[in-house]
Design brief:
2 domains; Rossmann fold; Arc Repressor Mutant, subunit A; alpha/beta; five-stranded antiparallel β-sheet; nine-stranded mixed β-sheet
Length: 464
Amino acid sequence: MDGNSGYDPEPTLAGLKSRSAACPGVIASRTRQSETALSGQKLIFVFDNYVLDTGRRELRRGHTVVSVQPQVFDLLEYLIRNRGHVVSRDDLLDAVWGGRIVSESTLATRINAARSAIGDDGESQRLIRTLPRRGIRFVGEVREEEEEQPRAPRAAASPSGAVASPLPMAQVSQQIHFCRSRDDTRIAYAICGHGRPLVWAPHWVHHLRFDWESPIWRPWLALLTKHHSLIYYDWRGCGLSDRNGVKFAPDLYLEDFEAVVDAARVDQFALVGIAQGARTAMTYAVRHPGRVSHLALFASSPCGRVVQGQSSEEAAEEDIRLKAVELGWENPRNPAYGRFFTSWHLPDATAEQVNAYNDLLWQTTSAANAVAMMRTFHRADVRDIVSKIRCPTLVLHSRGEFVIPFEWGRAVATLIPEARFVPLESRNHVLLGTEPAWQQMVAALEDFLPPRWPGTETAITSRS
């Protein structure tokens, strides 16, 4: 782990050592569930010149709110609540990451961020102290106060079984539901935001539980919920949806999307599709023309690599690429494979974004599922139906991306009657909120999707 964190990289349990040996550079949290580790009484902790308000989820210095990421806030809260003893690395991973595999660099980054947020550092360790080979402890003097001001109520679990999850941006609340696709595969979907409905057919590399914490997807969610009630979902085989024993095929992806829309009870909506989700979105718009008012496509293509036509050399290269992805998934910190997929998708990402995307890959699905899905993506073909799209359509595509070449996005815009095409000055397959092209995309989307459409605002209620 990064020495600047001041955290001793020696694991505290033999089981953790064996796991680290199997996957170098990766920390495995214990399998026991700890979702309630931070669900104690809502208190206000006063220390040094800071106030940690667990009810409002705010860190304040005087009257100024200190901006911290959700995981950093959780880390601080857990350390302060457990300040009476040393917290082992395993306890910290269980409490803050909830049983997930987390890279050493990610943990070191969060500890560094927690120290920095409260004016501490790895050298002085005034407030957060490392005890070599034992763990970490909050050593500052703390005064506890009960929460005085009432908060806006958090969404509770609905009778249908919806799960309310706390989100860090702009007090947006998200409810996670489940529905069944036609082949009985359980699909997880979420509803968040306010306004006219917008359905997102997302990239498959994401996870409903963690997207709001991700520097990759948090800007997308903030954008899409700014003026709309957003509905989006985890792909089959991924995230909270069924992962084991599921089949993968374009027709099944469409059935999953149809099941989500029907469960969410939306009759007409704007539709945004990205990458593989864009093909699903285009197919849905053709088969259900009266339900899609606006269609926005990012990183789209009319067909996959295999359908485009490959020489024997290109086919062999594709097999090598998939094998590299599979090896990288199982050896995430291996310098030869570990960052192959991420660097291919996000060549201009920052170190934080690369680490976050790497972590998200392992959280999303297994290597076997990932490769099986990508093989179906490469063989998908919607060329015969794209020209039948009749709703207003916006096509956006990064000029320099490697995964889905720019020419393929331009082909989509050519095939769809009267589609508007917006080239984006980026090399990233997934546009990042920190790059200049992001504002270009935001302006195009906000112009294309007006915040208020004619008609009465209706609430979204789920059938699940």
